[in-house]
Amino acid sequence: MADILHRIGIKTSSIDDVYQALTTESGLAGWWTNNTQGEGNQVGSIIKFRFGAGGFDMKVSGLNKPTHVVWEVAEGPEEWMDTTINWELKQDGDYIIVLFKHLNWKEPVEFMHHCSTKWAIFLMSLKSLIETGKGTPDPVDVKIDNWN
Amino acid sequence: MADILHRIGIKTSSIDDVYQALTTESGLAGWWTNNTQGEGNQVGSIIKFRFGAGGFDMKVSGLNKPTHVVWEVAEGPEEWMDTTINWELKQDGDYIIVLFKHLNWKEPVEFMHHCSTKWAIFLMSLKSLIETGKGTPDPVDVKIDNWN
């Protein structure tokens, strides 16, 4: 098994604002993909994220407001099946720290390398959304390679 | 053991330009830290990278021009000791693909989460250096959190 791990710090005093950006349709659409359908504020609910070439359905499998969010991949690319995405939020001085984990990849395939870098870029989009009011969700996301 | 993996695609036809950016003092200073001392073009050589708060000494342990570069961490933070950094370059259409691996972390500590995100940011700086002639090395690097 292999995992993608990231850490960003968002300059804000409101952990609730960050939690909202992970658990509401408008929040998620503001940093990941503007084609987001579904709220993420109930355990068991499904959120549909669509991108140019495909997308993911996430099942909300854990919530502990305002510090923890867990998603299980319900639909998506073969390599994403049976993986879990874990969000932990905490305050540290002037920052809300986001510890991100995309857990349980079967193999460290080349697509996992791509997704790791792309997650970092989208986390910076989340940071920008909270700090400036404007993120860079798909389709205005920062491109990293020939897979986008 | 835990690994950091990334993939970027640099829009250039010159794999040599990317290899140079990983194996020369001026190249490395252009995207990682402007306080870089030492060339990376000989197996066994040491490159010293310094940042505001500290730094790393890398021993070049493998070179296969222009597709592979391997560094072993010779000095650095405790968590970096005995880790290895692996660069693989290959052409794919209009891009030179960089597969990056920072291997053999003992534990997936919070600092590893930070380094994973920060590596993505520095890889985007490498991409920018080659594509536009200008990277964002320390101290003008993009800040990601309260650890910088």
Q: Would you kindly provide a written description of the structure presented here, covering whatever features stand out?
A:
The structure is a homodimer of 148-residue chains. Helix content of chain A is 25%, strand content 38%. Chain A is of the alpha+beta class. Chain A has a single domain (2-132), classed as Alpha-D-Glucose-1,6-Bisphosphate, Chain A, domain 4 (2-Layer Sandwich). A seven-stranded antiparallel β-sheet of chain A has the order 1-7-6-5-4-3-2. The radius of gyration of chain A is 14 Å and the shape is globular. The model of chain A has no long low-confidence stretch (mean pLDDT 97). The interface between A and B is medium-sized, with 33 and 33 residues.
Give the class of chain A from helix and strand content and strand pairing: alpha+beta
- Provide a count of the helices of chain A: 3
Residues in β-strands, percent of chain A: 35-45%
Taking pLDDT < 50 over at least 5 consecutive residues as the criterion, the unreliable ranges of chain A are: none
Q: Please identify which CATH superfamily of chain A we are dealing with.
A: START domain
| Sheet with the most strands: spatial strand order of chain A | 1-7-6-5-4-3-2
Domain tally of chain A: 1
Please state the oligomeric state of the protein chains shown: homodimer
Largest interface: A-B, 33 and 33 residues
Q: Helical proportion of chain A?
A: 25-40%
Tell me, rounded to a whole number, the average pLDDT of chain A: 97
Shape of chain A: globular
Write the CATH fold name of chain A. Alpha-D-Glucose-1,6-Bisphosphate, Chain A, domain 4
Distance between the termini of chain A: 25 Å
Number of strands of chain A: 7
Domain Activator of Hsp90 ATPase homologue 1/2-like C-terminal (chains A, B): 14-131
Family (chains A, B): Belongs to the AHA1 family.
Organism (chains A, B): Pedobacter steynii
InterPro entries (chains A, B): ASHA1/2-like_C (IPR013538), START-like_dom_sf (IPR023393)
